[in-house]
Amino acid sequence: MKRASPRHPSALIASVPVFLFLVVPTAIVVPVAFNRSRYITFPPDQLSTEAISGFFGDPAWMSALLASLQASGIAVVVAVLLGGSAAVALHGRTFPGRAVVTGVIIAPMIVPAVVMALAFYQFFISVGMVGTVLPIGLAHAVISVPYAFLTVRAGLAGLNPALVRSASSLGAGAFSVMRFVYLPVIRPGLVAGALFAFSVSIDETVIALFLQSPSATTLPVKMFTDIQYNLTPKIAVSSAMLVTVATLGLLVQVCFTIRRRSIARLLPLTAAADQTG
Amino acid sequence: MKSPTPTPTTTPSTPAAAAGDERRGSIELRRVRKTYGNLAAVDDLDLTVRPGEFVTLLGPSGSGKTTTMMMVAGFEELTSGTVLIDGKPVDRLPPKDRNLGVVFQSYALFPHMSAAQNVEFPLRMRGVRAGERRKRAEEALARVGLAGLGDRRPRQMSGGQQQRVALARALVFNPAALLLDEPMAALDKRLREQMQDEVKTLQRALGISVLFVTHDQDEAMSMSDRIVVMRDGRIVQEGAPEDVYAHPRTDWVANFLGDTNLLPCKVLERKDGVAVVDLGSWGVGRVRDLGARGDTYAVSIRPEHLRFVDAERTENRATGRVLSSTSLGATIRHRLRVGEKDIVMRELSAGTRAGRGPDDEVSVGWTQDEAQLLVLEP
C-alpha cells in the first residue's frame, strides 16, 4: 500500500489550515500586548510598549508573576525528584501490585482538575496550610509527577539491567550506581519532565483558583479575576509572556531531541565501519 | 584490528603470588541452596575453585549454573549454605565488596563512557588517583590487544572489541577471581574460538582463578581445567574435560557432551574398575566401570572410538552391516546395523581403507578403556 508522503503537495495544503487554526488564536495575543489602547482590541491601532512596562511596573501583577514562578519552582523540584526516583525504583523490578503503584502515580493525569482542586482545598485547610504559595506548588507537583515519571521511565526502557549489576560488581555503591548508571540515562527524561512540570504548573488555573489567597495569587488566577471587571492590555501582556515561555520550552525540547537523534543516526555508521572483528 | 597478543610483560601482581595466603583466589561453595517457592534452582551444591584454576559450570538452560554464579557474585541471596572467597565467608558482603571481576553476556559496558573510562571505573570506585588510573587502564587495554583504542565509545566498537574492554575492566583491579557468564554467546563462531584461546592464554599468564558459565560443551572442553556438569540444580559429574567426555557416569552426561552409542546391557561382574557385561546380540564384553549404581545399565562408546577390525583379532568385537557412509570432510561418518541396533561410527578420512560400501559385512571393535559402563537415568 502506498501512503501519501508527508512531503506531497496535497498533504502540505491540507495541513496549512490546521496549523493556522491551532496557532493564530495564540499568536494574536502577542500584537495585542503591544497595543496602546487602554482596552484589549484587535487589530492594535497603535503599537507601543506602554502596556508591557505597565505590567512590569504594577506590584499586583509582579507579585502574581512571582507567585507563579515560586509555585512552578516547587512543582518542578518535587515532581522531578518524586517522579524520577519512582521510575528508577520501579525499573526492572517485579512484585505483586506493581501495576497498582504505577496506576496511583499516573492517576493525577486522569482525575478531573476540579475534583483534585476540591480535594486539595479541603486537605490544605484541614492541615492549616493556607495563604502561601507552598500548597499551590505542592498541588502542582502532584499533577506534574506523572509527567516526570513517564519521561524518566521512557529513558530507562533502553537501560540494560546488567549495567547496574556490572557497576556494583566493579565496586560502585548505591550512590555511584545512581550517578554513573542511572543519571546519564535518565538525564534527558529529567529535563523533559522538568519542562513538562513547569508548563503544567505555570498555566494551571483551577487548582490555583481554589487555593488562592490575597498573598498567593498566581498569574493565570490574576488574569481570570481581572478579566471579569478590568479588561486591561496587561492581561494580554501576561498571556503573551506565557506563550513565549511555552514556545521557548518547546524549542529547548526540540533541540534536545534533534541533537540526540542526529548522534544516534551517526553511530551505527561509525560502528559498522569498525566491524573488522 | 590488530591481532591481540596478550603480553603480560609487567606481571600485574598475580593474585596467587600477591598475598602469602594460599587460599587467595579460591572460591568455595558449601551446601549452597537456592529455592524459589517450592522449586530448588540450586540444590545442596558443593564446589571449590582452587587458586588459579579454570572451572566451568556446564549445563542446559535451567540447570542452575547462572544462579550459582550470581550467588557467588552476590546478586542472588542464598537460601542456605555458605560461599567463601579467599577462604572467608562473603554471605553478608554486598557485590561491590566481593572483589570479583564479572563479565556479563551483554558485556554491560557503560555506553556514555569511553573504553578507557570504562576500564578506569573500578579503580575510580576504589579511590585510585586519576594519573595512576589512566596508566593502569592503558596497561589493561594493551593486555587485551586494544592499545590506542581507549577513546572509542562502546558503540563504536565491534562485539569482540567490546568483550575485550569488558575483560580489561574486570581484570584491572586485580580481583580475587574472574566470573564469566556466557561471555562468548553473542560472537560468531570464528571470533568465539579466537576469544576462547585469548581468554585462556590471559588466564594462564595472570594465574587468576576463573568460574565460567556456559551451555556450549565445545567451549567448556577447550577452556577448562575442570568441568562441572549441572542438571536441575545439582552437579551430575565433575572432572577434567577429557575424563568427563571419555567416562560419563550417566547416559544424560554422555549425550550432553557429544554423540555416543548407548548399548543396553546386563552387568555380569564388576571388579577393579572393569565390568563384564552381556550386550545381547553383541555378545559378552569387558568395559570400564566407575562404580556408578542404578537400576538399568548401558555401555557408551563414542563414535570415534569404534573402528573396523579384522575378525577374531579383538576381544570386544561385533559383526554387522554398513547402512551408509557420509563424508564430513575431515571425518567419515558410517551408520551400521549390528544385531538389531543402529550405531554410528566416525573415522578420519585420512586413514580410511577404500572400497567399503553399503551392505558390506564388517567387524567393529573397541578397547576396554574406550567403552564406559554407565547408569541409564529413569
TrEMBL record, chain A:
Pfam families listed in its UniProt record: BPD_transp_1
Main location group: membrane
Compartment(s): Cell inner membrane; Cell membrane
CDD domains from the UniProt entry: TM_PBP2 (cd06261)
GO biological process, one term: transmembrane transport
Keywords associated with the record: Cell inner membrane, Cell membrane, Membrane, Transmembrane, Transmembrane helix, Transport
GO cellular component: plasma membrane
Domain of life: Bacteria
Keyword S-adenosyl-L-methionine recorded: no
Domain ABC transmembrane type-1, first and last residues per copy: 65-252
Ranges that cross the membrane: 12-34, 64-88, 100-121, 127-150, 235-256
Signal peptide: none
Statement: the UniProt record of this protein carries the keyword Phosphoprotein: no
Membrane topology: Multi-pass membrane protein
Similarity comment text for this entry: Belongs to the binding-protein-dependent transport system permease family.
Protein known as: Polyamine ABC transporter permease
Species of provenance: Wenjunlia tyrosinilytica
UniProtKB/TrEMBL annotation, chain B:
Assigned keywords, A-Z: ATP-binding, Nucleotide-binding, Transport
Domain ABC transporter: 27-257
Region of interest (Disordered), residue spans: 1-25
Keyword Nucleotide-binding: yes
Molecular function via GO: ABC-type quaternary ammonium compound transporting activity; ATP binding; ATP hydrolysis activity
Domain of life of the organism encoding this protein: Bacteria
Pfam family, one: TOBE_2
GO terms for cellular component: ATP-binding cassette (ABC) transporter complex
InterPro entries: AAA+_ATPase (IPR003593), ABC_SmlMolc_Importer (IPR050093), ABC_transporter-like_ATP-bd (IPR003439), ABC_transporter-like_CS (IPR017871), Mo/tungstate-bd_C_term_dom (IPR008995), P-loop_NTPase (IPR027417), Transp-assoc_OB_typ2 (IPR013611)
EC code: 7.6.2.9
Low complexity composition-biased segments: 10-19
Descriptive protein name: ABC-type quaternary amine transporter
Organism: Wenjunlia tyrosinilytica
